[in-house]
Write a structure and sequence with these properties.
Helix content is 77%, strand content 0%. The chain is an all-alpha fold and 501 residues long. It has one domain (46-488): Up-down Bundle (Growth Hormone, Chain: A). It is found in: Membrane.
Length: 501
């Protein structure tokens, strides 16, 4: 809200705090979210507690690649020559999509706090089961089946981090200082995912060096077991959370879905399409990294060296995500997303044109630099801002379901990309085209995504959540919906009412 709107209510609150005996307590719902009497820490820690759990998404999705490599070395016949390898690595996608949809509903209908708390418990329980593979017995097939089942349920917990955790983090940023809200959302969502990937590569490298390749059976279990630590460290903070104040004020008890669909279907379709395309194309980014890794370390390098170079691959994401957090506050999520993904597409086409020269030992250093720029731009644009756009382009009352659907479409896009882009490589007429074709597809989709964003995504400012809630209420009232049924009496309201009696 603007200062002109915020200042009278804030002044009323200040006067009441100075002279409570002479004044009636102002209605808490009339006080702007960022003017509520809270300390800086009280405003900040809910954003951290809600968003930081996405570190687990990055870590668990990053570490499974290393674990898959270890299992392939341990069981070269049974693991590689069956569907086990594919199932273990990809089944979490299915669970994540299901979790995003389920927790999207529960976070709106029931509670942001308790939906997030349950998702955290699922991550802890099934993360521990993955590491121990309990119930697998001595059978290798039983081991793979157990890992597949536990990874599926682990994915459900990861899915809950999006519509419960990220949504609550976005709503909590409304209590922070205007001009800084987007960066704090990004620091504890996308930046956490990227940091999780980097840490997963560091952990895999250290564990394999410590155990040596003779003890990979212990190494992969340790790597998965460490994944339990991040959600466990957040469990108490999430237990102590209160519901975001914006959610308390705007939640619905009855959902007029026909009105909601008429109001938001176009916007949801666009946001979901952007997330789908971005995650679909992002799979091809690993194709180039695999190529330059093969050039640098060759086929005979020890396992730990391969994991160590993956640290560099993932580290490219961090500067892009960090810079994008500040640019999102300066230029807005829409412009940062659109220009970031557009420039990524341009760099992608440059890499396609120079692929024949770049993919050689002589130019491997240039290859690494250009690939790093390409990866950083992906995080600076859509990586940082698609979650912001999804969380701030709809009303609070339906944000969990809206965000959950958009995020689920992103995961489906990634899943589809893992199958479609390798087909493009396989059907290429020569090795050079096998490297170029997936990036031609991905770069073209980047440009298309930029156009979608410029044309159809609304401008998103610091106060968009509050203004969007107002716009949604006005629409509902114009269509005969009783908006007085919205909201929940908060503890602050009860204190104010008691003080006025």
């Amino acid at each position: 809200m603007s200062d002109a709107i915020a200042s009278p209510a804030a002044a009323a609150q200040a006067d009441y705090e100075k002279h409570p005996e002479a004044l009636q307590a102002p209605d808490v719902d009339d006080i702007p979210i960022d003017a509520l009497p809270k300390s800086r820490w009280e405003r900040s820690w809910p954003v951290i507690a809600c968003g930081a759990g996405l570190f687990s998404d990055g870590y668990l999705n990053g570490i499974i690649g290393s674990v898959n490599t270890m299992l392939s070395d341990i069981y070269p016949e049974t693991y590689n020559n069956s569907t086990a390898s594919q199932n273990v690595t990809s089944i979490a996608f299915v669970g994540t999509v299901l979790g995003q949809l389920i927790f999207g509903v529960t976070s709106d209908y029931w509670s942001r706090k308790w939906s997030l708390f349950i998702a955290t418990c699922i991550l802890i329980v099934f993360g521990a089961l993955c590491a121990g593979s309990y119930g697998a017995g001595d059978s290798q097939v039983g081991l793979f089946d157990a890992l597949t089942a536990y990874r599926f349920f682990l994915g459900i917990g990861l899915g809950g981090e999006y519509p419960a955790g990220s949504v609550a983090a976005a709503e909590s940023t409304g209590e922070l200082k205007s001009g800084h809200r987007n960066r704090w959302f990004i620091f504890f969502t996308d930046f956490m995912i990227d940091a999780g990937y980097v840490v997963s590569a560091i952990v895999a490298t250290i564990v394999v060096v410590a155990t040596s390749e003779r003890h990979l059976r212990a190494a992969w279990r340790i790597c998965l077991g460490i994944g339990v630590i991040p959600p466990l460290s957040l469990l108490y903070l999430r237990y102590k959370l209160n519901e975001p104040e914006e959610f308390n004020r705007e939640r619905m008890h009855k959902y007029p879905y026909w009105l909601i669909l008429k109001f938001y279907w176009k916007r949801l379709l666009v946001v979901s399409a952007i997330w789908f395309i971005y995650d679909f194309s992002s799979f091809s980014f690993g194709i180039f990294s695999s190529k330059w890794l093969a050039i640098i370390i060759g086929d005979s390098a020890p396992l730990w060296q391969s994991f160590a170079w993956s640290i560099l691959t993932y580290t490219f994401y961090l500067p892009g995500s960090f810079a994008g957090a500040f640019l999102s506050d300066i230029f807005g999520p829409k412009q940062t997303l659109a220009w970031g993904v557009f420039l990524q597409g341009v760099v992608g086409f440059i890499m396609v044109g120079a692929y024949k020269q770049l993919a050689t030992p002589e130019y491997v250093a240039a290859f690494v630099v250009v690939f790093g720029i390409f990866s950083a731009l992906g995080e600076l644009g859509p990586g940082d801002n698609i979650g912001l756009v999804a969380s701030k382009s709809c009303a609070t009352a339906i944000r969990g379901q809206y965000y959950g659907i958009a995020a689920a479409m992103g995961k489906i896009g990634a899943f589809v990309g893992t199958y479609v882009l390798p087909i493009a490589q396989k059907n290429a007429p020569n090795p050079t085209r096998a490297g170029q074709d997936p990036f031609i597809i991905s770069s073209a989709l980047c440009i298309f995504t930029a156009v979608l964003c410029w044309v159809f995504v609304p401008n998103i400012g610091q106060d968009t959540i509050a203004l969007e809630d107002l716009r949604f209420r006005e629409y509902l009232e114009a269509n005969g919906f009783d908006t007085t049924t919205m909201g929940t009496r908060t503890a602050q309201q009860q204190v104010s009412e008691s003080a006025s009696e």
